[in-house]
Amino acid sequence: MASLVPKDKRQLRACLICGIVQNHHTFRDMGCPNCEQYVKMARHNDVVADCTSGTFDGMMAVFQPKKSWVCKFAHVGGYRPGIYASHVSGRIPEDIEDALARSGIKYHPRDGSADE
């Protein structure tokens, strides 16, 4: 399970869509393990910059997302195990939000604005 914890603590970023925390290089090299099929981050620094944030609060380790009520509450129940941010500052660009909606994906802003 230690492989879930990002090894390089510098340049940690959280995905604005799912909230997973990885370093910038991992997003750039491999993309987001949950969102890559919808938002192509791998090898696209501009998309990484638009769809991740270095400003986030709280982290939770998720090992069995489908069995956890906390994961359901945090909207990460269908995602892969990993480290997730509780709140992520920022929003994805409108064109990406529209593309997600066309794919049937409901975007839950991670900045807390959906709770207001």
Description:
- With 116 residues, the chain is α+β, with helices and mostly antiparallel strands.
- It has a single domain (10-110), classed as 2-Layer Sandwich (Herpes Virus-1), CATH 3.30.40.210.
- Helix content is 24%, strand content 20%.
- It has four helices and five strands, in the order E-E-H-H-E-E-H-E-H.
- The strands form two sheets. Strands 2-1-3 form a three-stranded antiparallel sheet.
- The radius of gyration is 13 Å and the shape is globular.
- It starts with 11 loop residues before the first strand and ends in a 14-residue tail after the last helix.
- The model has no long low-confidence stretch (mean pLDDT 86).
- GO terms for molecular function: RNA polymerase II complex binding; translation elongation factor activity; zinc ion binding.
- Residues 12-89 form the Spt4/RpoE2 zinc finger domain.
- It is found in: Nucleus.
Labels describing this entry:
116 residues, alpha+beta, Herpes Virus-1, three-stranded antiparallel sheet, two-stranded antiparallel sheet
